[in-house]
Design a protein that fits this description.
Layout: H1 2-35, E1 42-43, H2 45-57, H3 59-62, H4 75-78, H5 88-97, H6 114-128, E2 138-139
Parallel strand pairs: 1-2
């Protein structure tokens, strides 16, 4: 009999606490949404797709997020305005022609489409300019 009473009282107490907390949790969630600021590295869909293409085609040599490796340069440095690939045209030229003497293939000859190359540039330029942080970028919601 004691156990039955205890379960009933315990169940009632849990339900009361739940009923008390439910509006509080809902209000907190609503307030968080109203005041939540988008991450610093929220990007448009094209730039996000550029990140995906970079990870698929380039990261194995140039390192995740373009930080470079022991055998390929850091593209986030190369794409800075005062460095060796300062424009989108220069980037496209390098990607399309490759750098065979350094082991980089000619990606246009391998079938990488121009729109994907342009999206990769958009992502890497954002990284080089410090607008996109390390990690998977968030996709900006369209309104």
């Amino acid at each position: 009999m004691k156990t039955s009473v205890w379960r009933t009282l315990h169940g009632a107490a849990v339900m009361m606490v739940g009923l008390f907390l439910l509006p509080l949790v809902a209000a907190t969630a609503q307030a968080r949404d109203e005041y939540h600021v988008a991450p610093r590295d929220t990007v448009d869909v094209d730039t996000y797709n550029g990140w995906k293409q970079f990870e698929l085609n380039c990261a194995r040599c140039h390192g995740e997020y373009g930080v470079g490796t022991s055998f390929a340069p850091a593209l986030i440095v190369s794409l800075k305005d005062d460095n060796n690939i300062p424009t989108p045209e220069a980037f496209i030229t390098v990607v399309c022609a490759g750098r065979p003497d350094k082991g980089m293939p000619a990606w246009c000859a391998l079938g990488l489409e121009m729109d994907k190359i342009q999206k990769i540039y958009s992502y890497l330029k954002g990284r080089a300019d410090g607008k996109i942080g390390v990690g998977r970028p968030a996709v900006r919601e369209t309104s």
